[in-house]
Design goal:
The complex is a heterodimer of chains A (454) and B (90). By secondary structure, chain A is α/β, with parallel strands linked by helices. Chain A has helices spanning 4-15, 38-52, 56-67, 81-85, 92-109, 127-141, 161-177, 223-231, 238-267, 288-295, 305-321, 341-349, 354-361, 379-396, 436-439; strands at 21-28, 71-78, 114-120, 146-154, 158-160, 189-193, 214-220, 271-275, 277-278, 332-333, 368-374, 400-407, 415-417, 424-426, 444-445. Chain A has two domains: 26-193, Anaerobic Ribonucleotide-triphosphate Reductase Large Chain; 214-443, Anaerobic Ribonucleotide-triphosphate Reductase Large Chain (Alpha-Beta Barrel), CATH 3.20.70.20. Chain A starts with a helix and ends in a 9-residue tail after the last strand. Chain B is of the alpha+beta class. Chain B has a four-stranded antiparallel sheet with strand order 2-3-1-4, with helices on both faces. Classes of the chains: A alpha/beta (454), B alpha+beta (90).
Chain lengths: 454, 90
Amino acid sequence: MINRYEVYETNQMIEQDNLDVRTITLGISLLDCIDSDLDKVNENIYNKITTVAKDLVATGEEIEREFGIPIVNKRISITPIALIGGAACKKPEDFVTIAKTLDKAAKEVGVNFIGGYSALVSKSMTKSDENLIRSIPEALACTDRVCSSINVGSTRTGINMDAVRLSGEIVKATAEATKENDSLGCAKLVVFCNAPDDNPFMAGAFLGVTEGDAVINVGVSGPGVVKHAIEQVRGQNFEKLCETIKKTAFKVTRVGQLVAGEASKKLGIPFGIVDLSLAPTPAVGDSVAEILEEIGLERVGAPGTTAALAMLNDQVKKGGVMASSYVGGLSGAFIPVSEDQGMIDAVKLGALTIEKLEAMTCVCSVGLDMIAIPGKTKASTISGIIADEMAIGMVNQKTTAVRLIPVIGKDVGDTAEFGGLLGYAPIIPVNEYDCSAFVNRQGRIPAPIHSFKN
Amino acid sequence: MRKCVITVVGKDTVGIIAKVCTYLAETDINILDISQTIVDGYFNMMTIADVTNSKKEIATVAKDLEELGASVGVMIHCQREEIFEKMHRL
């Protein structure tokens, strides 16, 4: 039978170390909503989402109360809209009507984000893909809860540099379109390489076409729990440190697995994956940076940061993978700047630069995430940063992503405020040397040699 | 059998256990195990209860007990046993 110490440990994780389930994300396929009539597509999408997801939020809240574990977000991911709207949308403005429908449906069912206003263009773009991408700035400016992503590269296809160039322009245009709110629209736009089909985390979630009709994916969290655990092994060797992280990741992930199973049962929707993630929030004690500092760095960004993060990421996966029947999504430590107090502090002090963040993305689960850059940054420079990050993903056969916020009207020394879980961020300096001649070359970067595995 | 773990933590006052047990009895929840200690003047109780025949949903019981706790100045959690079982047992 469960003993007092185990109950105490679990409840301490929840109450003091911010253990929570970060998201239950319901993936909904919209493939059966396709129609050549725009009004009909919108109607089909609205009806499908509000039918399949009608009990999602209430079920999530019930599970929270039954287990006494917070489930911070209930969200929806959908089939990339470039595929769904392709037959009906002849111009970017047509796609915007779908964005509005998604926003309305999200509000109706009570989820805080809906992801999948997306195009998958890792090799090249269809007219429909391009229309969707060009509609993103307006779509994100006129909706509250819609999240967008563009997959511009993969290990198997190489990098679509035409899409990278366009993405840089779109990020800049989105920033302009939402400049009244510190360019908040860019916080809802992710550019990917090797985007996973089953990611439950926003803003990059969408439901890939390889998925079924509906699926429950769960993202766990728990940086505070890991930090608390490794405080107990301060000064001890790497073996002890790694064992401690693994054990903690196992426990955290088991909670995710339990919640996923329960949600799947209650909603009658199959369980997909658990995403083994250390997802920070701006709350003190819920920071990945603080874990790295506890491991032995004065500040995140100091020499040793990449190695410490590589180790942390690997131990989280090793511990978590046994705790769940299916693992997927992004899985690993997240390093968003604005959503992590330790990262924010390190950027303010100048300890953490965008170049060091780029190095860190080689060994962790995502990419350059929630980084506020000067609003004057050129679109071609943003494309150059995207290209670099995509190259890391392509060559290392991993997911990488870019979520940069060029904050219009702000520069180094200013701070951008996004609010809530999105946090705030000091504007970080960007290398201003020009890369436009590189970015303006047409076509794509071929897939790397080690992708030919057949 | 469906089990819940009920924990009570807070400043010791007269009748905490009585109040909790009365509520559980009225709701047809059977106590399987109960233990209690006082650490530094703080009351710590853990109960494992069988909720198979409970008249109310567990989520409702959890909410009721939380409110009951608040009324006497202690924190009461009622959680399904699986969260502990999953986390600490292979």
